[in-house]
C-alpha cells in the first residue's frame, strides 16, 4: 500500500491527473508531509516565481433578510424579523468609497435571499457602484443569488446573469457551494438550490463569459468520500468551461446556528484537503488558503501544501464571523505571514495580476488602517 501511495504521489506531483478514488486514497492515507510536498511541487511548477498573493477587498453584506434558512448560518434573519436589515444604496456606496480609500480593488456583495429584492434592485446597486467607482471590480453575488433572483423576478438563469453582467457585475463569487453532494447539502441547507443547480448556474455563467471561483465549506458532517466527490463535481464542470479561477476551501464555523455541536474539520484535515485539491485540480489555476476560519498559522502552512494565495485582508466580513470566526488580520501581517513561509508576497487583483510585488522587506507597507472588521464592529453601524 505504501509503495502504491508513493508512486501515486510521484505521478500526481509530475502533473498527471488523479481519479476520485486515488484522491480519496491520498486524502485518507498518504503521509502528511509527503502529501504536502507533492502538492508544493505542483504549485512550484505553476508559480516558479515563488510569489504568494493576497488581495485588498471588502465584503459588503447588503441584507441579512433571507428565506433560505441554511442550518449552518448565523447571519440571516427571516423576513419580518425585528433584527432584519437591508442597506440603502447610498450606504453601500459609502462603504465602497471607504474601501477604495483604503486601497481595495474588489468588492464582494454578499447577502441573504430577501423576497423584497428583485433583479431591478441588484441592477441599481451594481450600476451605481460602477458609476461612482469604474475601476472597482465587482466580484460579487453567486449561483445562489442567481437562483433567488430568477425565482423572485420570474426570469431564467441566463437572463439574470446577462442583466447582472450588463449592470456591472464582473465575476461571480464562489459562495453558496457549501458542499455540493446531495446528502450532506440537504442535511445542512434543505431549502437551498441543489448542488447540481449551483453547478448548472456556474456553467451557464462561464459560457456567457462571467467567470467565478468555487468554494468548499468543510466540516458539517460529510464523509471523506463526499469531500472528494465535491471536488469531482467542480472538476467536471471546469473540464467543460475553464471558468473557475480559483478553488477556496474553508472550515465550517459552529457558533450561533442550528448545527451547533457538529465537529469542525480539524487543521490537519484542512491541510490535507488543500494538498489533495492542488493535486486533483489540474484544471484550476489558483488555490486559496483560509486564515479567516482556520487561523493565521494554518493559513501560513497552506502555502507549503499547495496554496498560492491567502485571499483577502477582509476590510469587512459579517457572515462567517457571525458563526464564530474570530481571526483578524491586516495587510502588514498577511505580508509577514507570506514572507515567513519563505515566499515573496504580492498584492493581486481579481484576475490574479500582481498589483504590487513586495520584493524587498525594507519596503513593506506598515499600514494599520488596512485591517479586518467583523460583525462586532460593523453591525453596530447597520
Ligand atoms: S448562508 Fe446565505 S442563503 Fe443560507 S441562510 Fe445564510 S444568508 Fe441565507
User: What strand order characterises the main sheet?
Assistant: 9-1-10-11
Return the CATH architecture. Alpha-Beta Barrel
Structural class: alpha/beta
Distance between the termini: 56 Å
Number of domains: 1
Bound small molecules, deduplicated? iron/sulfur cluster
**Fourth-level CATH superfamily:** Aldolase class I
Total helical elements = 15
Largest sheet descriptor: 4 strands, mixed
Shape category: globular
The Cα radius of gyration reads: 20 Å
> Which stretches are low in confidence, meaning pLDDT under 50 for 5 or more residues running?
374-382
Tell me the helix content. 40-55%
CATH class: Alpha Beta
| Mean pLDDT metric | 91
Short note summarizing the structure:
This protein has 382 residues and is α/β, with parallel strands linked by helices. It is built from 15 helices and eleven strands. Strands 9-1-10-11 form a four-stranded mixed β-sheet. The protein has a four-stranded parallel β-sheet with strand order 2-3-4-5, covered by helices on one side.
